[in-house]
């Protein structure tokens, strides 16, 4: 029996205006209105184009796309008030887990389009469930890939080779540094940027389900995150002086201007970098956190999925919208605009900045972001930033374990009750 976790929503909500209209309104020039609310502010224009294209080719359905600022806060507020859009476009993170547990989302296992989705991304979504749940509640659309972006032209000029192990990465950093070039730019003033290298290292060094293991009481973060923390400290030594004085935009600009050879960030940063230097030749490689090249995996998660709400009065119309969104031509349009990775199997053209990660994508050797399991209230990004400033591994890990129990006590209780009964 599912627990309702609206209390978890309310704990992290701020007052939000009622920006969304009711769901499933009919009568827009005689058409069924399907309301889609999506959370990506950087994709507003491409969604507007998709909606315009859909509405010009469908006589019976009108697609209404809304892209409010701070969409997740607004969505949660609307859900508490039992006011639901028909489809939501959200990421594969802990908010998705809350929505499943609160019985807000419809089971879409009967949607025929699921057959074309890469099974690896379906597994990633299922892994986000607090406890195993029958059914499928999201249609993965696009993913992103995180690791290390690098200046391909600079690498070619200096003859630097892509590292496959942690030791090779450190040797490369020393080589780059010896040639008077900064290996990395970090931009850790914006706390969320601290999560990029953290996640990329954690998928190599910690179990993919470490958060579930901790919830079940079988292990601790102190046991599995020590190597991650220590290697984060090693990386920081190869970055800009005072990385906590510079933010994400500063790091993107510096990397675009050739001030560093590499940047530990995801593919999602490429449009921002290209806005500074449109001609920059960027490629990427998987973070080689392990001493064994075979132990490395691509840090990739569902960046955007579509979920039909249980309150949607016309599931058939919603599925027609999903059919349209999943047409190859429309997916490719999104990929070209956002430099993303398709979750649908098919012959898609990926951005050149993903060349070094293609083998991992095609083989399915990928692992979800660890922070997709972290509760927002725990502010892990700020904890990592503080740790990198103070450089006290033991204190950081001890606080991580104690805060996890504090902010996840309801989930821990639910998981342990489930395991006791199964």
From TrEMBL:
Keyword terms, alphabetized: Signal
Q: Report the domain of life of the source organism.
A: Bacteria
Which region is the signal sequence? 1-21
InterPro entries referenced in this protein's UniProt entry, alphabetically: Bact_solute-bd_prot1 (IPR050490), SBP (IPR006059)
For whether the record's keyword set contains Signal, the answer is yes
Q: Name one Pfam family in it.
A: SBP_bac_1
- The identity of this protein, by name, is Multiple sugar transport system substrate-binding protein
Q: To which species is this protein native?
A: Eubacterium plexicaudatum ASF492
